[in-house]
Write a structure and sequence with these properties.
CATH class of the largest domain: Alpha Beta
Largest sheet: 8 strands, mixed
CATH architecture of the largest domain: 2-Layer Sandwich
Strand content: 15-25%
Number of strands: 17
Oligomer: single chain
Number of domains: 3
Bound molecules: flavin-adenine dinucleotide
CATH topology of the largest domain: D-Amino Acid Oxidase, Chain A, domain 2
Distance between the termini: 41 Å
Length: 526
């Protein structure tokens, strides 16, 4: 006799396609009947009593607080024998309830004799139809970089996970990404760095340019001294290449199950689990949920309803062009950061140097709202028309199909509630100016898997506590750091003059200002 937890798990994992004869069906009858009675019906479906089933029925009726009686009853072989007759009938009631979903299969089992008990249906109400409910230990919502990295981290720790994604495939919209050593280090741990690097570019420097005068202000050298200091190089990639590497590693791992077309819409906290429901009606009854559903997270509200993400009116236009369209003056081997009053441009090559990524960011004169009437292409052109000749050339090649309002949020002091926890942009969306959003999402993924491995599924509270202790302070600092970079880069007037002087004095091998962010964290050394 298997334990209750295993029984429930087994029932949820039934492969209906494999039940093609009476014998295989009957082996499942007991599992179905007991599980339905215990957790799915209100009032519990009645089983026609015999002397031997009395305890069992009573236990079913008080299923929430009397599981021990059920367990004892079922663990006795003699009692099981007597129970089977009732359970068979009971399972047919279940079959009747579920018939719309399993019409073809159950048609074979219908006859007047077994269905004599179906009048019980009048009193029974299915709370969560078994057919549409999956039992999961760890469910991840969202298949972006944060969600896939979480799935992979858990699987590498030997933990089975299911990930649900609302789109019909796993894709990244957008262009390039910069991946600093703190990100590369964890990609190595996840076993995908080699694949990511195979499609990456290794820039020589990050160069800061004055967008108005065209002068070079300073640079950070990314050569051997940088790599020696942080252990990993600074790379730039197409975001689809990063996502693909994570996705492929996930599908190769037998402990990861990925599902698409699943938009989670409701969260329902239950005494010993958390139930999520998708727009399709599919439900997941979980021990733990990881919300990796991004900037506009629907699940974040369950932890903290702090309204919409924040905007101060900046918009990004970005995309890639073929490298042959770009002149060599554009600094093809570097990350170039052109800064000006309330605007900047970032450029770098991606995809083994075949594509050139460009992003132009500026502050709209209009108040941000939910429309696309502010930060328009016209405003973009007007704003950058004050730039130097190189900036104007960049604008002439810029892709303007996608408009991205720039958002972040104030850091939270808690990322979890009950059995649900946030990772990535759902937890700490940040301005893109520090190029750290994806890196921080991957740091979350690894830290959460480590905490889960340490404390185990029976102590979710300790898992979340350790994860939050480790990740909230650092990611909050990055949120503020990204804002500070924006303020620094977008200066005008006297503040700009002072800023430029500070930048010009910077030593290209002085990495102190970013060591706290790029270096290996104490916990990663464990
Ligand atoms: C212009 C720009 C440039 C950037 N540059 C960099 C950079 O250089 N370096 C860097 O590290 N970061 C950068 N970032 C940040 C980085 O892109 C994000 O921080 C990162 O992609 C967040 O990943 P995520 O998985 O948390 O969220 P997302 O990528 O948003 O993924 C969320 C996923 O959840 C799914 N989903 C949403 N709701 C539901 C639901 N209800 N049910 C099921 N699924 C759902 C979505 O379809 C999506 O697949 C940049 C961001 C921007 C905007």
């Amino acid at each position: 006799m298997i334990g209750l937890a295993q029984r429930v798990k087994k029932v949820y994992e039934i492969e209906w396609g494999s039940i093609d004869n009476v014998a295989s069906f009957m082996t499942l009858v007991e599992e179905l009947a007991i599980t339905v009675a215990q957790i799915h019906c209100e009032p519990p479906l009645p089983i026609f009593p015999t002397k031997n089933t009395k305890n069992f029925i009573m236990a079913c009726k008080k299923s929430n607080d009397n599981r021990e009686i059920i367990r004892t009853t079922l663990s006795s072989f003699a009692k099981q024998k007597y129970l089977m007759k009732d359970i068979r009938c009971f399972s047919m009631i279940y079959a009747e309830i579920a018939r719309r979903d399993h019409e073809i299969f159950f048609r074979n089992f219908r006859n007047a004799n077994v269905f004599k008990g179906t009048e019980s249906l009048n009193d029974a109400r299915m709370l969560y139809p078994l057919v549409h409910t999956r039992r999961e230990a760890v469910l991840i919502v969202g298949g972006g970089i944060g969600g896939l990295a979480t799935a992979l981290s858990f699987a590498q720790a030997g933990i089975r996970v299911r990930l649900v994604e609302k789109n019909n495939n796993f894709r990244e919209v957008g262009a390039g990404m910069q991946l600093a050593p703190n990100c590369s280090r964890l990609l190595a741990r996840l076993g995908v760095l080699q694949q990511v690097q195979a499609n990456a570019v290794f820039p020589k420097q990050i160069v800061w340019m004055d967008a108005l005068s065209g002068e070079r202000l300073t640079c950070l050298d990314l050569g051997p001294k940088f790599v020696e200091r942080f252990g990993y190089p600074y790379i730039v990639v197409h975001r689809a290449d990063l996502l693909n590497a994570l996705y492929e590693a996930c599908i190769k791992n037998p402990l990861v199950t990925l599902e698409t077309n699943r938009t989670v819409v409701t969260v329902d906290e239950r005494p010993k689990s958390i139930m999520l429901e998708c727009t399709t009606g599919m439900r997941y009854d979980c021990d733990m949920v990881v919300a990796a559903d991004g900037l506009w997270s629907a699940l974040r509200k369950y932890v903290c309803d702090d309204g919409d993400p924040l905007s101060v009116g900046y918009v990004t236009y970005r995309g890639t062009v073929g490298i042959d369209q770009v002149s060599k003056e554009s600094g093809l081997e570097n990350v170039q950061f052109w800064i000006g009053p309330d605007m900047h441009i970032v450029q770098y090559p991606v995809r083994r140097g075949q594509l050139f990524n460009q992003a132009a960011v500026f502050k709209s004169k209009l108040m941000p709202d939910h429309t696309d009437q502010w930060g328009t292409k016209e405003e973009l052109n007007e704003r950058f028309s004050t730039g130097c000749d190189q900036v104007k050339k960049i604008l002439s090649l810029l892709q303007t199909n996608f408009r991205w309002p720039v958002y972040d949020r104030n850091p939270l002091s808690k990322w979890s509630r009950g059995r649900l926890v946030l990772v990535g942009d759902a937890a700490h969306p940040m301005l893109q100016y520090a190029a750290q959003g994806a890196a921080q999402a991957i740091e979350d993924a690894c830290a959460l898997a480590d905490a889960y491995k340490k404390h185990g599924p029976s102590n979710i509270e300790a898992v979340f506590h350790e994860y939050e202790q480790e990740r909230i302070p650092l990611s909050s600092k990055v949120v503020h750091f990204a804002r500070a970079i924006g303020d620094f880069a977008h200066q005008s007037g006297n503040a700009k003059t002072i800023r430029d002087e500070i930048l010009c004095m910077h030593d290209m091998h002085d990495f102190d200002c970013i060591t706290w962010l790029y270096e290996e964290k104490r916990n990663e050394k464990k």
